[in-house]
Amino acid sequence: MGSMTLYGEPGWGSAIVELQLAWYGIDYEFERVGNLFKNPEARDRLVAVNPLAQVPTLVLPDGAVMTESAAITLYLAELSGNDSLVPAPRSDRRAAFLRWLVFIVANVYPTYTYADEPSRFVESADAQKPFRRAVDAYACKLYSQLEDVAGQPWFLGERFSALDIYFAVMTNWRPNPPWFEANAPKLHAIAKAARERPELQSAWARNDLDNQ
């Protein structure tokens, strides 16, 4: 099988997929897209591959394009032939994994889509800051719900999964690491432990913006 190409930006949502590619040992090339919010040329280049101009965008060896991190997560697990990140269909953790994977991508992740660039959704400039504050506040409520159901040492309890990789990346975003440490200590601990997994060190080093 040839190499895949992952379009992304260090520390952005593409990191969730890059860490999984590294975990499975799948060969890939990283195509850095630049800041899609500040660079129209970067957005135009990505539109040619993904009309939504969103990362992650993964191009498979045969040229097929995959988007949506949850879909990619499930696909990579099938491709790898092991269940180290995604519980197998008959696993007692499968239902919980699927529930919270979709919860993250359908509820939490969109709060960044809305608040990162509120002008795409709110026309009035005067309303954009209040809109962003409201969306960020809603994201905190969602994270609090995840905190309530989080296991230890990993989100699913004793079993490490791709969910822990999501938290490793997303707890670096708003509302910011100190908020998670103070208000969602289980998620904070899960994220910290996931970032320290030896299987992820090289890929994490490329996405740890605090150390770049």
Main beta sheet: 4 strands, mixed
Strand order of the largest sheet: 2-1-3-4
Task: Quote the beta fraction.
Answer: 5-15%
The total strand number stands at 4
Low-confidence stretches: none
Helix content class: 40-55%
Spatial gap, N to C terminus: 32 Å
Order of helices and strands: EHEHEEHHHHHHH
Number of helices: 9
Q: Based on CA inertia axes, which overall geometry fits?
A: globular
Structural class: alpha+beta
Which whole number gives the mean pLDDT?
94
- Determine Rg (CA atoms, Å): 17 Å
Q: What does this entry look like structurally?
A:
- The structure is a single chain.
- With 212 residues, the protein is α+β, with helices and mostly antiparallel strands.
- It has helices at 14-24, 40-47, 69-80, 94-116, 125-149, 162-170, 177-183, 185-195, 201-205; strands spanning 4-8, 28-32, 57-59, 65-67.
Report a brief summary of the structure.
The protein has 212 residues and is of the alpha+beta class. 52% of the residues lie in helices and 8% in strands.
Break the fold down into its secondary structure elements and pairings.
Blueprint lengths: L3 E5 L5 H11 L3 E5 L7 H8 L9 E3 L5 E3 L1 H12 L13 H23 L8 H25 L12 H9 L6 H7 L1 H11 L5 H5 L7
Parallel strand pairs: 1-2
Antiparallel strand pairs: 1-3, 3-4
Keywords:
4-stranded mixed sheet, 4 strands, 9 helices, 212 residues
